[in-house]
Amino acid sequence: MAQFEQTEQFADRAGPVMAPPDVTTVIGRMRDFRSSWPPPDGVAVFNRVYLTVTETIGRQITEGAFPDRAAASALDVRFAERYLAAVDAAEAGRRPPDCWRPLFQYRHHPGVRPLQFALAGINAHVGHDLALAVVDTCHALRCAPPDLREEFDRVGDLLVLLEEQIREDLMPGPDLLEVADPLTHLLGSWSLERAREAAWSAARVLWRLRDLPLLAEEFRQRMDAGAGLVGRCLLTPCR
Fold it and tell me: What does pTM read for this prediction?
């Protein structure tokens, strides 16, 4: 999916409902990235994390864990497509959204640790893309954000569990040296739970602004810039 565009986000939705896309399509693209990028690459670090989430959601959709499988699939794919569009832009030499730029700019920096890359990607995706994915899905399924609240919460719960696992796998244990490590304090200042709550609020605001495209785009740009600033902080070299 291309970057947020007024004509798509806030156009008249009187036409037929779009069929939910297939989760396997975005999973296939992420697996291709995993094969193409070297493991230390910062974008590859995030891609591995996000691939795990998407595969888990895909299995749960197939197994009937979501009450509305069509809505869950649509939200998951439109969320993933925002990340894929950012990769496509960067690979083609175009400017990705501001929220993603720090990760692409620092992806090979030797002073940035894998945990920072993973969380910077999650910050960009949740801090900017998630709200837009909710709006995209509402337009596609001709519903409103409250109709997607259960799917939104379930996807968010998976992200929170994964973030905890990421911290356990990539963060050293709490000995005296590590407590003094600047990375401990840097990452302690960011919360996925708060970012997820902010994304839901932003989705509701964007939905209310759907008939005011210029104002909605201004809001999106500020949200994008804010997530980009947080991403730069998360990627502060710590070694």
Answer: 0.85
